[in-house]
Design a protein that fits this description.
Structural class of chain B: alpha/beta
Structural class of chain A: mainly alpha
Strand order of the largest sheet of chain B: 2-1-3-4-5
Helix content of chain B: 40-55%
Radius of gyration of chain B: 13 Å
Oligomer: heterodimer
Distance between the termini of chain A: 36 Å
Number of strands of chain A: 0
Low-confidence stretches of chain A: none
Strand content of chain B: 15-25%
Distance between the termini of chain B: 18 Å
Shape of chain A: elongated
Number of helices of chain B: 5
Number of strands of chain B: 5
Number of helices of chain A: 5
Largest sheet of chain B: 5 strands, parallel
Order of helices and strands of chain B: EHEHEHEHEH
Low-confidence stretches of chain B: none
Chain lengths: 126, 127
């Protein structure tokens, strides 16, 4: 089953305005701390998704995807937000079908997002 | 200074709220419902920012407990949620939340004006 709606393929994967916003809230210091927390937490949440899938714990999977969605959105990782949200909705509708594949997609996306955020963190700019 | 309690399990969200609210209010943070209910009962803040998606006791359950506790039931409580489905706002307000703020926080003035509005209402209710 195709997981990603065709419509979302044309949407931008990242939004640097989110990083500018964080700088407005708390300067480069906040931006760097938020990036650092995200890069620590996101792999943990993805691991929690996989653990939950393995044990059939739908609530844990939904909560991990929800956290991932929320954190990605705040940092402008828009494609990651959309993927997490799709998974979250699927679990809420009572299905865990295709979520292992979605977790793989999220892993790939995290690699891209990490590179993007590392650059932003180093430069302190977008 | 006015004290705001933040109930939020994600460190990144707590950090962001600190960045926006620090210096304006005294902040107290709780990472889960059990700690929050114990802490709020022993040290009453002026307002609570309550995340909905928490491990164990979620925000809805925490709110229900606050609203049935004589000492805590009048606390202004603002829901913080990344759910943002249509009809969510009505659902949370009907459940007894005073207000509802969606994450990600894009415009901090929406959060700040909601806080100020409910602090004012709360103070008016006490006099």
């Amino acid at each position: 089953m195709e997981q990603s709606p065709i419509a979302s393929a044309d949407l931008p994967p990242t939004d640097s305005a989110a990083l500018d916003r964080l700088k407005r809230f708390g300067g480069v210091k906040l931006l760097r701390e938020m990036i650092s927390l995200f890069l620590t937490a996101a792999p943990e949440r993805l691991a929690a998704v996989r653990t939950g899938l393995g044990t059939g714990d739908a609530e844990a999977v939904e909560r991990a995807l929800h956290s991932l969605k929320s954190s990605s959105a705040q940092l402008g990782a828009m494609r990651m937000q959309r993927l997490s949200e799709q998974g979250e909705h699927r679990v809420r509708e009572g299905s865990m079908d295709g979520l292992a594949q979605l977790a793989d997609e999220l892993d790939l996306e995290l690699t891209r997002v990490r590179a993007w955020l590392m650059t932003a963190s180093t430069e302190g700019t977008t | 200074m006015t004290t705001i309690a933040i109930v939020e399990d994600n460190a990144d969200n707590r950090l962001l709220l600190q960045a926006i609210l620090d210096g304006l209010y005294d902040l107290v943070e709780y990472e889960n419902g059990t700690d929050a209910l114990a802490g709020l009962a022993s040290s009453l803040p002026d307002l609570v920012l309550l995340d909905i998606s928490l491990p164990g006791m979620d925000g809805n359950e925490i709110l229900a407990r606050l609203r049935t506790d004589e000492a805590l039931r009048k606390l202004p409580v603002i829901a913080l949620t990344a759910h943002a489905m249509s009809g969510d706002r009505e659902k949370y307000l009907a459940a007894g939340f005073n207000d509802y703020i969606t994450k990600p926080i894009v415009d901090e003035t929406i959060l700040l004006s909601a806080i100020e509005r409910w602090l004012t209402e709360s103070q008016a209710g006490r006099t």
